[in-house]
Specification:
seven-stranded parallel β-sheet, two-stranded antiparallel sheet, alpha/beta, binds coproporphyrinogen III
Length: 322
């Protein structure tokens, strides 16, 4: 999950210096610095490269901006003409700083600390591309997918292709593990989930694994409930990242025998801290911690999180059953 960000004053300082959020993502020294900040404070076992899933639409030529207090704003892609304007011509050159940041971070991390690379899943990235931002009701992207699946498939196929290449580039740069974020998989009903979330993600995993089978991939299809079991059989990922709503006992029974599971403390409990946080974290560890497990949050860290609570949580996880 996200672990760098606005809850750390040292992040806010670098963010200010960088000017815009995308500028921060595309300046390797600064992106490397903010990646390492939480590692310096807390005894984390892994880092995740500081970047964003919306680097991909920007690299395809779509205009992407992050506006203070509004989140991302994109020039919507809604018609075949809009699709035709997307281009792979400058993709590699635009994402190159991410690879450079990965190489810088890998150099500075001890070998025992794993570095995650990541990308958004096609459905989630397409949602931002078509809606023109977040916070909406997904009516534009869903209507397109339902009304004209053949044209929508061209957008999804393009994202499958560039995302698989992009993840392979991250491995070449030094990423040890990859995560694919499908943050909005949960808005799709049954058959559409299969078609637009599961299959494109499974195809990316297949392409990356075909060339670099030694690199584990974690998939995060947020909000799909019992749909997680489909990923066990239909996606060749090594791990599944559980959102806050998945019951650990259910995951222990249905998912963990076949996949590594990661998760899933509610980020709001990290804001609250104290016994509420500790009890919930211990319950997760008691149910999932004996087998293949990565302790994590069930979604990204919130800006109002007190850093002291993160330190408390890391200590608790490391001391568990010691
Ligand atoms: O911890 C890390 O270092 C990883 C960095 C990371 C970011 N975004 C940095 C970021 C990761 C892994 C992401 C993934 C991402 N980005 C997702 C998938 C995960 C999830 O949360 O569901 C999504 C949906 C996005 C798109 C995105 N980026 C949104 C909706 C927003 C605005 C929301 C907000 O919190 O303001 C962003 C901006 C963003 N990406 C920030 C950070 C630290 C905040 C920007 C800032 O500093 O102003």
């Amino acid at each position: 999950m996200r672990q760098a960000g606005r809850y750390l004053p040292e992040y806010r300082a670098v963010r200010e210096k960088a000017g815009s959020f995308l500028e921060l993502c595309s300046t390797p020294e600064l992106a490397a610095e903010v990646t390492l900040q939480p590692l310096r404070r807390f005894g984390l076992d892994a880092a995740i490269i500081f970047s964003d899933i919306l680097v991909v639409p920007a690299a395809l030529g779509q205009s992407v901006a992050f506006e203070e207090g509004h989140g991302p704003v994109l020039e919507p892609v809604r018609t075949p003409q809009d699709l035709a304007r997307l281009s792979k011509a400058r993709f590699d050159e635009t994402v190159q700083p991410v690879g450079e940041a990965i190489a810088l971070v890998r150099e500075k991390l001890p070998p025992s600390v794993a570095l995650f690379g990541f990308a958004g899943a096609p459905w989630t990235v397409a949602s931002y591309m078509v809606e023109g931002g977040g916070g909406g009701d997904f009516s534009a992207v869903k209507a397109w997918a339902y009304r004209d699946p053949d044209t929508f498939a061209r957008l999804i196929d393009l994202l499958v292709e560039v995302t698989a290449e992009y993840l392979l580039q991250q491995i070449d740069a030094g990423a040890d593990v990859l995560q694919i974020f499908d943050s909005w998989a949960g808005v799709l009903p049954d058959a559409a989930l299969e078609l637009w979330a599961l299959r494109p993600t499974a195809e990316i995993v297949r392409r990356v694994q075909a060339r670099r089978s030694e690199v584990p991939i974690v998939v995060f299809p947020r909000g799909i409930g019992a749909g997680y079991v489909r990923y066990v059989d239909e996606c060749d990922c090594a791990g599944l990242s559980l959102d806050t709503g998945v019951a650990p006992t259910w995951a222990a029974r249905e998912l963990q025998p076949k996949k590594i599971v990661q998760g899933n403390l509610d980020p709001l409990l990290l804001v609250v801290g104290g016994d509420a946080m500790r009890d919930a974290a211990k319950r997760i560890l008691d149910v999932l911690g004996e087998r293949r497990f990565i302790f994590n949050l069930g979604h990204g860290i919130l800006p109002q999180t007190p850093a002291g609570h993160v330190a408390d949580l890391c200590a608790l996880v490391h001391d568990w059953r010691r």
